[in-house]
Amino acid sequence: MREARDSAAIFAALGDETRLRLVARLSGAGALSITSLTTGTRMTRQAITKHLHMMQSAGLVRGTRHGRACLWQLDQRRIREARQYLDAISKQWDDALGRLRKFVEE
Amino acid sequence: MREARDSAAIFAALGDETRLRLVARLSGAGALSITSLTTGTRMTRQAITKHLHMMQSAGLVRGTRHGRACLWQLDQRRIREARQYLDAISKQWDDALGRLRKFVEE
DNA sequence: ACTTTGGGCAACCGAATGGTTGCGTGTGAG
DNA sequence: CTCACACGCAACCATTCGGTTGCCCAAAGT
Predict the structure, then answer these.
(1) CA of A55, closest CA in chain B: separation in Å?
(2) Torsion-angle region of residue B30: left (phi > 0), alpha (psi -120 to 50) or beta?
């Protein structure tokens, strides 16, 4: 199984309501600037910036300067990694249930 | 899409190395007591207890008293919910890419 | 009956989190 | 050129988090 530390970082990055909303928004819009991401959040631009940097250090998102704006977009690979981790957990769980059933039957 | 708050709680519960290890262990073993979960962690039993309670309040895990031991096991539904959330994000992302491509082509 | 063993509760602690404000800076629009 | 706009940086704050210690309780083992 994948290293627990890295996966934990991804999940931690997703484990905040504000950040999850940002991810949802980015997943539908492609790339957005910080100020446009700030509108509708009743939070400061700095708060959003912090969240974005946090997600970037987790590899969930990346931002590129474009003129005087800074456009941020998802990096979908990490999302896939997280999905795979959950898949592995589910599979292991199912296997364990299967073994248990087999054990009970014998 | 599902309420962001609940999903964030699930991801937050998964977003810690210790807890993720507990989940991995529980997914393979079925049901374990607190002390048996503590062995091999170089942490106090109380720390593990706190993590378990935290995960329980997120719906990830549930514990039932059994004699003087307390057995904890995964609740796989929340893991599925988390997977579905990530699936939705991925799908939305793919759709957005598709629209972008279409837009560029026209 | 006495002692181990598995666990709960509460207080305490340092460090990280989530958020704000204030100020400085480069870029682009008018 | 000038000014507004989008952003970065740093300090600061309250709260939460991850973890420990100490004490106590009840269930089992001997």
Answers:
(1) 13
(2) left
Q: Could you read off the pLDDT of B43-89 as tens digits, one per residue?
A: 999 999 999 999 999 999 999 999 999 999 999 999 999 999 999 99
Q: Do B86 and A83 touch (CB under 8 A)?
A: yes
* Spatial CA neighbour of A76 closest among B94, B95, B1: B94
Query: What distance in Å separates the CA atoms of residue A93 and residue B7, rounded to the nearest whole number?
Result: 21
Single pTM value for the model: 0.93
What is B9-45 written as a DSSP string?
HHHHHH-SHHHHHHHHHHHHHSEEEHHHHHTTSSS-H
Q: Which residues contact B87 (CB under 8 A, 6 or more apart)?
A: A83
Of B9, B28, B92, the CB nearest to A92: B28
**What's the rounded Cα separation, in Å, for the pair A91 and A9?**
22
Nearest-CA residue relative to C1' of C18: A47
